[in-house]
């Protein structure tokens, strides 16, 4: 009898705890985010969730990875999510198609390209001229990684379509496995794959496209104009939580950051996550505040134009809202 009483008492206490925890956030607003991919590059977003910064603002975040900028836009436009995390170029593509409800960039997450040039051989001292005549495994045509890649190659006097064998018909998810199986002399990769290849001896990081291309609004949070007009307070809360995470990530150790975001990368060793975070932070990839300024916006369009992918020039104020980020920072 005592045994059953103890079990019953334990269950009662557990139920009361669950009810108490649920009651702590009775008025939290659900916000759905559609992210373009799952990446250590987006560490501040996962920090904002795991450290409770969104919850402090009364927001419950539902995060979905939809794999592809076009899919993020489709999800946003069809009201499958309130907020998208994707490259700013996608908002230009949508605008150029004549959308009567444009997608507005309101908070910047990353401010450089996130890819690295990985060589198959350990070539010692690297120079960009060494790419000439090589087979280069690039990214998908029209996407920011490929556009930045071509921009950097041209900056160093390399014609990507004539001076090397450029391969860009492999799906994003299969690029790393293609290189691992022997395709290409060089490959353009995100973390943590670049660090994994270094550790396994498959390749060697020789340059950073992020360092070479300068500041661009590489990944930003965006929402439809209509949603922002009707939910200004929600966007403010969201931006405030992000800004808290951006501040925290600048002062925490790479190890602390890695431990915080590890639940999102269960198949990646903690040391690799730490190495990737450190590499991104040391080159200034994580935006230190949510403001997407005009210089970055113009740099983005210059890169798109150089790649022949800019459908039209769009003024910064047309697709970027900095007022909310500025007001959050002033607080």
Task: Describe the secondary-structure layout.
Blueprint: H1 2-24, E1 29-35, H2 43-50, H3 53-56, E2 59-65, H4 69-77, E3 83-86, H5 89-96, E4 103-110, E5 115-119, E6 135-137, H6 144-155, E7 165-167, H7 175-180, E8 186-190, H8 193-200, E9 204-208, H9 209-213, E10 219-224, H10 225-230, H11 232-251, H12 254-261, H13 270-282, H14 294-306, H15 316-319, H16 323-330
Parallel strand pairs: 1-2, 1-3, 6-7, 6-8
Antiparallel strand pairs: 3-10, 4-10, 5-8, 5-9
Protein name: NitT/TauT family transport system substrate-binding protein
Keywords: Signal
GO cellular component, one term: periplasmic space
Number of domains: 2
Number of strands: 10
Q: What is the tally of helical segments?
A: 16
Name of the level-1 CATH class of the largest domain = Alpha Beta
CATH topology of the largest domain: D-Maltodextrin-Binding Protein, domain 2
Strand order across the biggest sheet? 2-1-3-10-4
Shape: globular
Strand residues, percent: 15-25%
Structural class: alpha/beta
Biggest pleated sheet: 5 strands, mixed
The CATH superfamily of the largest domain is Periplasmic binding protein-like II
The helix content is 40-55%
Oligomer: single chain
What Rg, in angstroms, do the CA atoms define? 22 Å
Regions with little confidence, pLDDT below 50 for 5+ residues: 1-24
By CATH, the architecture of the largest domain is named: 3-Layer(aba) Sandwich
- In whole angstroms, the N-to-C terminal distance is 59 Å
Please, what is the average pLDDT? 91
**Strand/helix succession:** HEHHEHEHEEEHEHEHEHEHHHHHHH
InterPro entries: SsuA/THI5
Protein name: NitT/TauT family transport system substrate-binding protein
Main location: periplasm
Organism: Bacillus oleivorans
